[in-house]
Amino acid sequence: MAHCPLCGQPNPLARLAQHPELTQAITCRVQDAHHGWSATQGICPDCAVHYAERQIALRSIDTLHYDGPDSVGFPYYHRDEMTILALPERLPDHPHFTGSGVTIAFIDSGYYPNPDLIDGRPTVLDLHYSNADVGRARRLLEQQRLRIRQYLNLFEESERTGLDSPSLWSDAPNSWHGQMTSAVAAGNGLLSDGYYRGFAPEAALLPIKIGRADGGIPESEIARALHWLLREDNWQRYGVRVINISVGGDHPQAWWENDVCLAVEELTRRGVLVVSAAGNSNRGELVAPAQAPSAITVGGIDDGNRRIRLDRPEETIRYQAYHHNWGPVYVDSWQIAKPEVVAPAKWVPAPVLPVSPIFREMWVLDQAWDALVAGDVIAAAEIVYTWRTILDFEPEIRQAGAEELQQTLLARMNAHKFIHRHYQHVDGTSVAAPQVAAVAAQMLQANPHLSPYQIKELITASAHPLYHLPPERKGEGLLVPASAVALALRAPGGLLSGLPVSGAQMAADGLRNLSIPVKVATIGDADVDQDQWRAIYLGCLAPDAQSVALTGSFNGWQHDAVFLLPAQSGWWHGIFLLPPGSHLYRFWITGTDDSVRWVCDAENALRAESGFCHPHSVINV
User: Judging by beta carbons within 10 Å of its beta carbon (0-12, 13-18, 19+), is residue 62 exposed, middle or buried?
Assistant: First the structure.
């Protein structure tokens, strides 16, 4: 076995075909301490955790984004981490389920077939500034296999279907909002090498465009879209199981008198879940469809662009309520508090409209900024001079010094909410709702038998309570995708019905019912009172595996000592005795082709930074 170049201990990661990628910040910390070391040498998990903890300790408690002349327009807490985190880094999800086989309908002001909605990898997709040309962008994207099953245009009381509709390929400003909501839910992050993906990156889409030429979206237009889905069971024709509505009605009205809400109730009865944005007016009132009883109404939180451990209240208390709407809904004598759940509504990454002037600007800004960061002021100035007409800069920009050029670029980048050459950060319950819609698609892939009522119950049951927020604002708490999918797998008809969720502590009666041999998962702490050890159920979905081992901080990250047992349909599980403490772990999966993977527990929402790009799972005993 190879040894760690830092501590000399055996390094099980050496068996991987390629070392798990260290984060850039951790690479910098290691290089600062060990001159001559390079990331290609790798380090062992214990050393990676050590440097991850050092990085955490170096972060400011408060955001640095207003601090100094190089301030950016979003929160960050360390100079080496000046970026917006992807949603799966902030809300732990279940990456095994991608929404495949499920169609999400979006009712919105307009759309565009963003490259993040391509099915798989593109054949030829040359993305650069000139893609802002409407015709060229369309020709490139029409060569790809899109996940858009159909497109419906109900704009201005019309009714036209077809992916060749000019409005689907339009650079009109109203195309942006629906592109944003659909990509937040179902984008595969193609333009960011997979980083800024949604929770349902393989779901199919049915975009429905509504609205009027003056920019308004009357409530009657939302109703027309819902009635089209009901008519002749169009929802069923296109496999729609989830509808996302990030637009709102005209004024508060009793739900039983509202055509939109009644249509939502009918779709729910037929088996379609409706997810609605709560609205952003910071008022104790709701408009359709947010006050439909059966809809999941989604409010927002501001997580400050942080990775937060859900098992640490001192960290989760940093979540702040977004300025969303709220209020009770009555069904006979039964009161439903809305929103039912909250999700990030600030600092949410979303792709820029590829056929917009902003797309051109951001491409140029990125080129110039990279040159400036690399210390090549002349090259940066030449870039902005060459493309000065796109940026609307004066020719004198060519003579700008480093400081002036930096301030000029940052001012424009912040104005566009720049986070990446193809992405910006966005906010509102309009982007909180699609996160819930995407998780619902994951749940339906995991268990197609779920009804809308069950999905709603499981999402709220798995939400993380936020006790510090006003009760009427937080619903049942924060969306936790991994936990919601885990519960879906165990609902009636689910693959794992009758089994515990991975990470659960087992009582004596549970051990008897499962009849699985109990294994000791530690090689240390032999002097700890055995009465204090706890039996933990752990499982992993790996249908292509020939073996699955448990590896963690409790056994020196050995990958060939403690193995899970095969169960049904690709599920591997075991019960392991662990001593008191907080333990990090992952699963070591050996495939039928002898390939190896090192993955966290997809069902356990408690995760810790590992030093690598993917986290470790955490068990607290």
Answer: exposed
Q: Determine phi and psi for 416, rounding to 5 degrees.
A: -95, 5
Q: Residue 359 in contact with residue 352, Cβ under 8 Å?
A: yes
pLDDT digits (tens, 9 = 90+) for 314-348: 999 999 999 999 999 999 888 999 999 999 999 99
C-alpha closest to that of 432 among 565, 508, 357, 321: 321
H helix intervals, 324-428: 357-373, 377-386, 388-391, 402-415
Closest by alpha carbon to 377, among 414, 424, 409, 415? Answer: 409
For the segment(s) 504-620, the CATH number from 2.30.30.60, 3.10.450.50, 2.60.40.10, 1.10.3720.10 is 2.60.40.10
Confidence at 17, pLDDT banded by 50, 70, 90: very low
Angle subtended at Cα 461 by Cα 477 and Cα 187, rounded to the nearest 5 degrees:
70
Closest CA to 351 of 203, 186, 209: 186
171, 176, 177, 183: CA torsion to nearest 10: 130
Q: Does the pLDDT of residue 13 top 90, yes or no? A: no
Angle at 582 between CA 579 and CA 588, to 5 degrees: 85
- Give the residue range(s) of CATH 2.60.40.10 domains in the chain: 504-620
| Cα–Cα distance measured from residue 486 to residue 503, given in angstroms and rounded to the nearest whole number | 11
The domain defined by 89-350+427-490 carries CATH number 3.40.50.200? yes
Distance CA 537, CA 511 (A): 9
Average pLDDT over residues 116-121: 89
